[in-house]
């Protein structure tokens, strides 16, 4: 740990357990230590408290933060990773502390920069004076893939191109802050900043409470209120537009949507009707007037932009022309992320704002100009070479930029490329960034750091998030390029000398709105419906397998007639009893997890954790469980975990439209499962013991004993598992529940007429209600299963394929 009273460059302090050293890196400024080697005042209280902790206490605190992140399911996907490979969030547990006065000065520079970027976007997509007057080279705009010609001359709804931007900044060797990059396309990280804050305060809740740290909620509240003001009509929707679950920051998209109370939509959820963007919901098409897009602009409309896009919405650009929808940020604003633009920012600022840049950019030279290219070539060893037009990889080895030894190795090839393709390249000065403390192998060690800071347009103007997202390098490399890959992340505390105002997103009692019924997107309804089906399908298979292995433990003979017969039945469902924990079972649970992943904004963290735990346990059991008694116990454990998940959903999920689709899916699958089982195991050719096995699988052994004064017989089993309206395992009970839920769905009845789906549910329900046990033959069960399966298709036609 570090003593707050230390004054030397090598800071030492005694902890209750042992002494730890903190040695700043040579040639790099440090966030914790000032230029004179003394601990900065803003860090002293935090370090004093940290120094008083034992190693065990510190480890316990860190575990709290990590456990929170695991339980909350915080993840990201790295570029180039395996599909759907979620990686744990790499939190660096020591926050970055910055004094309020320094932050205010920094914020002034960032607000000026946000205003400047807005003016540049407005000029490029309208009069183009900056090009005409020589402040921007024409080739830098015309050859830029982010320059979207269909957007030229288009005035954004609300009048602004930018609403939410981010800045990559770092502190240089002289102690001043530099802008490393501007993020205007679809800036990520704000949601992760919130999670960083929650996790870090779990570890240091007492220190956080004692420190005057600015809260983040007011920043998000002001932005939410601003977006609400863009709505054309009170019933219009606001949505976060995501590329989908495969995106590396999808967790953040769902988190932000849930946090702010917005819909989370994909391009396929939207359609454009009469130049109005509409969302497909289970109640029909509903207007959307504000979209916070998190996908690149070029993919937003395959009709006028990238024709290969499968994640966009045809006609979106035309809707923008009619000013019927506001988009955050405007399509085409990704042009402002052009790295070469940094070279021209000082002159543009003087031209548009008549001011000097308050916050300078990292020194940048666009190699499309002869003199600048010559300068870069002459100083190649001190340069970082990267793509001029975007942040994407330009080099054959996949690197975004090259510098130092990597450039020397490619020196001849790089010189040729600079001469032939200079307009596509920039040179940037290699800047040693400041370091900040991080726990490395149990001790505080300096690690290079950059900040991602967020700015939101509010009713009062641009507002800077009081904190942000610190990216911490994974090694001692202090070059700017080291900040572009890997490492960890940390919370940023903006510390005041006095108490700060407590903020919350909760509305006042006189100022709240209730979402309109029927706002459930059709795709979300589909995922909820299939989540219910997959969960119930897994439960049905588990109950059969538990009964099978219980009898196998007794007979030890797979050819025993009942075991062989049930194995044949399961084989028809692609369930192989040769596998103790069949792959099909694991796939059903994984499919449920995938369906849930598509509706993360509507799924509780507890439910998500329980479902992940179920999937992990099922996978683990595949490698460890033996047939017979061992498998029976394993199936019981899985059933209990599944029941725990179902209980969480049942007890915690709001009884709104989404609940009804989830419930219909579960009841439909349970009814199908029982109809198929009764057809196979209650017929005249069923082997001995089949009826007892049926009662066991139907979890109705005790009920049968109490209700009937005879041993299991075909009629009693049929009465209990098919026709009993009070037995939650019977077919009739499932149909009654489905009927009840369907009655409450949107448009179940229109002008006194039942919808086709509701009419079919009533038909099957009424038919079964008139049946007697004696009339329930194998043919009746077969027809019943077919009719119930057809309900799934009819539901899709009525509510999903809108």
| Total of DSSP H or I helical runs spanning 4+ residues | 26
Strand portion, in percent? 5-15%
Helical content stands at 40-55%
Number of strands: 24
Regions with little confidence, pLDDT below 50 for 5+ residues = 1-20, 392-398, 480-484
Query: What's the gyration radius in Å?
Result: 31 Å
Overall, the morphology is: elongated
- From the helix content, strand content and strand pairing, which structural class follows? alpha+beta
Major beta-sheet overview: 8 strands, mixed
Compute the separation of the termini in Å.
Answer: 61 Å
The chain-level mean pLDDT equals 88
How would you sum up this structure, described in words?
The protein is α+β, with helices and mostly antiparallel strands and 802 residues long. The protein contains 26 helices and 24 strands. α2 (55-72) packs antiparallel against α6, α15 runs antiparallel to α17 (583-597) and α20 runs antiparallel to α24. The two termini are 61 Å apart. Mean pLDDT is 88; it is low at 1-20, 392-398 and 480-484.
């Amino acid at each position: 740990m570090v003593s707050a009273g230390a004054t030397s460059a090598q800071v030492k302090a005694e902890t209750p357990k042992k002494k730890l050293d903190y040695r700043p890196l040579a040639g790099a400024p440090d966030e914790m230590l000032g230029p004179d080697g003394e601990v900065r005042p803003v860090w002293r209280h935090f370090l004093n408290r940290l120094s008083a902790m034992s190693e065990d206490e510190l480890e316990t605190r860190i575990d709290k933060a990590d456990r929170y992140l695991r339980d909350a399911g915080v993840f990201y996907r790295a570029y180039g990773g395996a599909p759907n490979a979620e990686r744990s969030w790499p939190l660096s547990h020591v926050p970055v502390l910055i004094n309020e006065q320094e932050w205010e000065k920094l914020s002034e520079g960032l607000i000026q920069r946000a205003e400047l970027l807005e003016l540049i976007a407005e000029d490029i997509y309208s009069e183009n004076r900056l090009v005409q007057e020589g402040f921007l080279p024409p080739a830098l705009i015309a050859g830029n893939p982010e320059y979207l010609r269909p957007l030229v001359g288009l005035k954004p709804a609300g009048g602004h191109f930018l609403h939410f931007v981010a800045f990559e900044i770092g502190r240089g060797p002289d102690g001043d802050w530099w802008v490393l990059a501007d993020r205007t396309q679809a800036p990520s990280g704000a949601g992760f900043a919130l999670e960083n804050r929650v996790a870090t305060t779990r570890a240091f809740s007492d220190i956080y409470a004692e420190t005057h740290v600015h809260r983040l909620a007011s920043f998000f509240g002001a932005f939410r209120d601003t977006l609400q003001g863009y709505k054309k009509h009170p019933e219009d929707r606001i949505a976060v537009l995501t590329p989908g679950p495969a995106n590396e920051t999808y967790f953040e998209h769902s988190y932000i949507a849930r946090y702010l109370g917005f819909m989370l939509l994909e391009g396929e959820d939207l359609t454009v009707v009469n130049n109005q963007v509409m969302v497909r919901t289970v109640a029909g098409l509903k207007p959307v007037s504000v979209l916070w897009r998190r996908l690149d602009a070029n993919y937003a409309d395959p009709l006028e932009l990238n024709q290969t896009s499968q994640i966009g919405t045809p006609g979106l650009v035309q809707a923008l022309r009619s000013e019927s929808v506001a988009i955050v940020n405007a399509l085409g604003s990704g042009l402002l992320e052009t790295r070469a633009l940094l070279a021209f920012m000082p002159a543009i600022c003087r031209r548009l704002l008549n001011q000097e840049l308050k916050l300078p950019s990292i020194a940048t030279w666009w190699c499309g100009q002869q003199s600048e290219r010559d300068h870069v070539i002459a100083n190649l060893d001190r340069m970082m070479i990267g793509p001029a037009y975007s942040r994407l990889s330009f080099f054959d080895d996949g690197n975004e930029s090259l510098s130092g030894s990597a450039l020397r190795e490619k020196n001849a090839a790089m010189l040729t490329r600079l001469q032939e393709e200079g307009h596509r390249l920039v040179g940037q000065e290699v800047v040693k960034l400041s370091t900040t403390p991080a726990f490395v192998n149990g001790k505080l060690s300096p690690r290079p750091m950059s900040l991602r800071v967020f700015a939101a347009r509010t009713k009062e103007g641009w507002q800077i998030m009081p904190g942000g997202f610190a990216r911490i390098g994974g090694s001692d490399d202090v070059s700017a390029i080291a900040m572009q890959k890997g490492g960890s992340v940390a919370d940023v505390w903006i510390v005041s000398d006095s108490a700060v105002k407590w903020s919350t997103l909760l509305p006042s009692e006189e100022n709240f709105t209730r979402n309109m019924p029927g706002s459930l997107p059709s795709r979300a309804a589909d995922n909820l419906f299939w989540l219910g089906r997959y969960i119930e399908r897994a439960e049905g298979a588990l109950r059969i397998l538990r009964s099978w292995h219980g009898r196998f433990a007794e007979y030890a003979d797979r050819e025993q007639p009942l075991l062989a017969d049930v194995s044949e039945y399961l084989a028809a469902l692609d369930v192989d009893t040769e596998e103790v924990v069949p792959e099909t079972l694991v796939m059903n649970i994984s499919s449920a997890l995938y369906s849930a992943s598509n509706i993360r904004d509507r799924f509780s963290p507890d439910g998500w954790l329980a479902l992940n735990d179920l999937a992990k346990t099922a996978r683990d059991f595949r490698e460890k469980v033996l047939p017979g008694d061992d498998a029976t116990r394993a199936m019981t454990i899985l059933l209990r975990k599944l029941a725990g998940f179902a209980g969480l959903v049942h007890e915690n999920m709001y009884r709104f439209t989404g609940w009804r689709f989830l419930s219909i899916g579960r009841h439909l699958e349970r009814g199908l499962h029982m109809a198929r089982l009764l057809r196979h195991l209650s017929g005249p050719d069923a082997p001995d013991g089949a009826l007892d096995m049926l009662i066991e699988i139907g979890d109705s052994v005790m009920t049968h004993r109490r209700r009937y004064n005879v041993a299991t017989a075909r009629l009693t089993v049929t009465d209990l598992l098919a026709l009993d309206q009070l037995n939650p395992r019977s077919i009739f009970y499932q149909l009654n529940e489905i009927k009840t839920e369907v009655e409450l769905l949107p448009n179940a009845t229109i002008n006194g007429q039942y919808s086709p789906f509701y009419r079919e549910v009533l038909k099957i329900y009424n038919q079964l209600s008139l049946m007697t046990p004696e009339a329930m033959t194998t043919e009746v069960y077969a027809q019943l299963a077919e009719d119930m399966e057809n309900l799934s298709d009819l539901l899709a036609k009525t509510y999903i394929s809108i």
